[in-house]
Structure formats: C-alpha cells, structure tokens
Write a structure and sequence with these properties.
Largest sheet: 5 strands, mixed
Number of helices: 1
Oligomer: single chain
Number of strands: 10
Structural class: mainly beta
Strand order of the largest sheet: 1-2-6-9-8
Helix content: under 10%
Shape: globular
Length: about 140
Amino acid sequence: GLTSLAESWDARPISYNHFMLGHLMEWLYADLVGIQPDSTGTAFSKIVIKPRPVPEVHWASGSYDSVRGRIACSWKLVDGHFHLDVDIPANTTATVWVPSRAGSTVRIAYPNKSLGVLVVQERLDGYTSIAVSSGQFQFDSLVD
C-alpha cells in the first residue's frame, strides 16, 4: 500500500517519502562532473567547478539550470591529457579546479571572447585553481 518509496528496503514504518538514490545524483553532479555552489556566494552567484575523475571513467558531462542561468561542465581524459569545457552564466564568477600534474602548465582558451581569467594558477593537491568570469572556457592539462 505504499504510494512512494520507503526509506528502508524492508518497508519498515520509518518514512514513506524518501528521495531514493539522491546521494548518487549528488555524487554525479558535485563530484564526478564537478558543479558546486561556492559557499561564499548566494544562489550560485559564485560557482566552483571541480571535477574528480575516477579510475575507468574517461569522460563526464552535465549541466545545472541555476537561478542565474545554465552552468555546464564536460571533461574527458585521453592518454594523460585532461580536457575540460566550462560554461559560466552571466553575472557570476567561478573557481575552476583543473586536475593537473605538478610542474605542468594548464592551457586556457575562451572561444567566444569571454571576459576572461581573473586569477591564474594556485596549485593544491593535484589541481590548479583558476578564477574566471562568466563565459565559455576550455582547459587542457597533463595529469598523472
């Protein structure tokens, strides 16, 4: 007689309105694809893009329609080269964390003449962080 998924597999009377597999969706968006709100901004006025590739996954792509506009991120890993495409909506900024090998350079392109890069290359734990304005960006790096 349930009208929604039970919170427990054996349907014990705990809660009958459970967002089944919500943790998986969170992992796909926030970790694998890397789209996250920045805690120093409100309603995605500041964005964090930090994809976390995992073994045997060679690409990921996703978007989120925030109140500020569509945020999109896609990446692929081919022969030790990491390629990341990012779309940041108007009137927002983002910190993009690009997986990169220590001592290597991250190449940046803005194909649609976006406003550009605000702060470049702070290195931390296998990533290079780059602060960008709104627009479309492409990043290329070498990874371990």
